[in-house]
Amino acid sequence: MPLLRILALAVTLALGALAAERASADEAQVSAAIQKFATADGFSGVEATIQELGAIGDPLAVRALRALGENELKVTPDGAVVIEGADALLDPVTGETVAEKGPRLERIRIKNSIRSMIDETISALTLRAADPVVRMSAADTIFAAADPEQLEPVQAALAAEQDPDVRRRLEQAVAAIQLASSDDPEIIRASIEVISQRGDQAALGVLLGYRNQATGEMADAADEGIEAIETRLAMWQAGQNIWYGISLGSVLFLAAIGLAITFGVMGVINMAHGEMVMLGAYTTFVVQETIRNSFPWLFDWSLLIALPLAFLVAGFVGLIMERGIIRHLYGRPLETLLATWGVSLILQQAVRTIFGPNNREVGNPSWMSGAFELGEMSITWSRLWIVCFALFVFVALLFAINRSSLGLQMRAVTQNRRMASAMGIRTPWVDALTFALGSGIAGIAGVALSQIDNVSPNLGRGYIIDSFMVVVFGGVGNLWGTLVGGLTLGVANKFLEPYAGAVLGKILILVFIILFIQRRPRGLFALKGRAVE
Amino acid sequence: MILGRFLAGGLKSPVILISMLVILGIGVLVPVLNLAVPPSSPFHVADHLVPLYGKYLCYGMAALALDLVWGYCGILSLGHGAFFALGGYAMGMHLMREIGTRGVYGDPILPDFMVFLNWKELPWFWYGFDSFLFACLMVMLVPGLLAFIFGWFAFRSRVTGVYLSIITQAMTYALLLAFFRNDMGFGGNNGLTDFKDVLGYDLQSGQVRSALFFLTAFFLALNLLIAAAITGSKYGKILRAVRDAEARTRFLGYRPENIKLFAWVVSAVMAGIAGALYVPQVGIINPGEFAPANSIEMVVWTAVGGRGTLVGPIGGAVLVNAAKSWFTGVLPEYWLFALGGLFILTTLFLPEGVAGLIRKAFGRRAKAPKGKDEETDQPVADATAGE
Q1: What is the pLDDT of residues A455-494, one digit of tens each?
Q2: Which of A341, A403, A462, B119 sits CB 3.0–4.6 Å from A271 for a disulfide?
Q3: How far, in whole angstroms, is CA B387 from its chain's centroid?
Q4: By CA distance, what is B168's nearest residue in A?
């Protein structure tokens, strides 16, 4: 095995050296061809020059061709072809600065048909590029264009290609070209086979294009291929929807879980819950601002630093609320609802006064930005981390409620307040700590939501109704209910969206919940037994 | 005859009678001060104030409607703004049809926004709104029907307390989202506006504004009378029984769901009328009226005025909105602080509102509801778990 690897390495190196040598030999030739743009006669002259560059087949020409496509290839007054850079004129082959930026540069005019010709030529040239990713995207461009004239260069590239992934793409490109140009039923059938195995949107486009002009058996073969691709795509689409749904569901869960705790234990509707989420998001903003100004190297850790702080800030505000207001309103849930709504107005306006009414920018740390592909699905890192975080919060809370002494007391108070009090539990303190806990959880939810939503004083407003829906749907005082409720509503929402549109989908969900409460007024996972009465 | 005797029942209380006279007096006084008194006089009411005061009276009517269900039946509706807005939309649709060819696009049938959206014909639910009487019928019918369907299901399933509050909020939120959609055919984001006249009279003229103001005052007084008659009747007693001990009332053989449903529908219709009078005076109705925050603000008017007193909430609505106008003019940044503080202070220190304060000051025995929403002698956990 090692021997084989060494051998492969040697071959690669040799090929690379060969390519380098050939490049230097061709450089003059490429340069001379590029110079012909200066004297090219109209569009047809430009086309001829591009063809010549393609015929030379050297990737060196790519830089000039790109510049041509972007209208940056210019002719100086003394007839030299250069690239107009941001602040200097560059050599079209090497990219080195050749002169100061001067006036009276003449643009080489192109039109759309030339632009697509440039793209194809570039892909043909980059089929030999050193980077496999570049080669792959070149193959994909050719696949989509399916230009018969490129059959030979692609087949040549295929013969020399070592990387299995790139080979597959090149084979598909060959198949697409053959499908468009060949008359031999066997070749066409084989091509359809290869293309349908590719199975993505581009493959579907190629096959649909072929189907429109095909007849007889070939049409049937194409139909089969199309169906296979469509089934595959539909499955990936469903997968993507489920993923979006889980992602939305975990956001809903995060926003709602704190509410579920306070509502479950104390029967208190905290209308200021959304504002606790907002406070968490603003804590993240403040932490990031401090880090940006004083400790830029800490930026990737900003969220981890913000988490405990957000918990403390929101939890502290919650504690003050409970001690100052809610404590006096026990037994009057509707009044509590109004008073907490008042608190929410005050918190919103306070944040607006301090931080201004506009969105504040909260950045993604490097490990949360970007996305990756999984088959036909695209998954952003921030969403993935939020799902993980939601699960982590869930497990931690489950543990806290089932294993800690505060959790034990909370459960006791939920089940039977008077009996718990008789057993020596200080129920007022349990209430206060529960409220602080629920608010603190809302705060850390705010840290997570700051990554995917606008951090503005209205942040909480957007979540409060959804959170209520999740809590009421899942059943009060039950963590599992909130989890299932959040995920169900998230996934249902994302599955309705393609058919009904985002807004109508949301309306349908709301109507569904209103009807659902009629059937099961205590939610999906209702408390049973004496606790209910 | 029966109706007359029923309404006369509402006049038994001198407070109601006096309040009605005061409201009708204001309804006459403001137009007179606006039209007959010369602008130089200190008693003159400026033109722009007439619709503003009219708006306050509409809000008062909405608060009265809310008091009927919250104060006397214990249903805290966080969705009364929906009934208000539906009534407003019904009236707005009629005013839209009256514009006729005077719209920007001059289409004789389609309102401007439909022409803009390239619609070819009037949607079916706009039929009939060219008739004023039909529109008036719809003003009461649409909110009433929605309330009936909603209440029918909700009360039958014994959804009570905070759960009911939350689903009423969900209802108005769903309507908010729905009316924001252009496809709904109600003007989307912009709503209905640019009204020209009502029944052929120019909406901008002083006489029409004064007439609208008087009408608002008249309907407010009428609704107050109806509400007083309802709560003063035998039915009103059962209503309060349901509020204070629903389970016990049921065991006595009454059907709480039907009792609640009647008050709920009447209240929704009142809110609809308030909305219908509101629209011609402010000149616009848009989906923002469905916002849950609006409905909750209505609750605070009722709470500030004193729930379960009928007259109190009307005063509360006028008071809070006058304060709002003053704040947004002078200290716009502090209005939300003031409103939030009002929510907290009222619930903590003034459970019976301003009306309760006045009662105490006059040494009368307070008859307002006790502070608790469910069976009053039960511990916290039970109150939330419902029956």
Answers
A1: 988 888 888 888 888 888 887 767 888 899 999 999 998 8
A2: A341
A3: 29
A4: A514
Interface mutation vs chain B, best among A334, A425, A514, most B CBs within 10 Å: A334
CA distance A457 to A359: 8
Taking CB atoms and an 8 Å limit, are A338 and B154 in contact across chains? no
Give yes or no for a contact between A50 and A114, defined as CB atoms under 8 angstroms apart. yes
Q: Is the confidence at residue B291, as pLDDT, over 70?
A: yes
What top-level class would CATH report for the domain B2-371? Answer: mainly alpha
A335 CA: distance to closest CA in chain B (Å): 6
Q: Are B146 and B90 in contact (CB under 8 A)?
A: no
Chain-chain contact of A465 with B158 (C-beta, under 8 angstroms): no
Per-residue confidence (pLDDT) for residue A7, from 0 to 100: 53
Place of tokens 């929510």: B343
Report for A220-224, A377-381, B242-246: range of highest mean pLDDT = B242-246
Q: Are the beta carbons of B347 and A329 separated by less than 8 Å?
A: yes
Query: How close is the nearest chain A Cα to the Cα of B154, in Å?
Result: 6
Question: Cα distance from B256 to chain A (closest Cα, Å)?
Answer: 16
- In angstroms, the Cα distances linking B190 to A160, A505, B78, B81, B193 are 63, 22, 24, 18, 8
What percent helix, strand, coil does chain B show, rounded to 5? Answer: 70, 0, 25
Strand partners, A377: A374
Q: Where are the domains of chain B?
A: 2-371
- Kindly report, residue by residue over B43-97, the tens digit of the pLDDT: 888 888 999 999 999 999 999 999 999 999 999 999 999 999 999 999 999 999 8
Domains and CATH numbers, chain A: 25-126 (no CATH), 241-532 (1.10.3470)
> Helices in B189-288 by DSSP H: which ranges?
206-232, 234-244, 246-251, 256-282
The one-character DSSP state at B325 is H
How confident is residue A11, by pLDDT bands cut at 50, 70 and 90?
low
Task: Tell how far CA A445 is from the center of its chain.
Answer: 20
Give the nearest partner residue to B157 out of A461, A513, A518, using CB atoms.
Answer: A518
Q: Do B348 and A328 touch (CB under 8 A)?
A: yes
Q: Which of B64, B291, B198, B292 is nearest to A271 (CA)?
A: B292
- Tokens 């909370």 found at: A410
Backbone angles phi, psi at A82, to 5 degrees: -135, 165
Query: Do the Cβ atoms of B111 and B96 come closer than 8 Å?
Result: yes
Q: How many CA atoms lie within 13 A of B326 on its CB side?
A: 8
* Residues in chain A closer than 8 A to B246 (CB atoms): none
Give the position of tokens 């299932």: A484
- Does B380 sit within 8 Å of A266, measured CB to CB? yes
Contact A325 B344 (CB under 8 A): yes
Q: Looking at B66-80, B106-120, B252-266, B272-286, which range is the least confident one?
A: B106-120
Residue of chain B with shortest Cα separation from A269: B162
How many angstroms from the chain centroid is the CA of residue A181? 38
Chain B, nearest residue to A428 by Cα: B380
pTM recorded for the entire structure: 0.78
Rounded to whole angstroms, the Cα distance separating A407 from B282 reads 54
Residues B166/A472, Cβ–Cβ less than 8 Å: yes
Q: How far is CA B184 from the centre of its chain?
A: 24
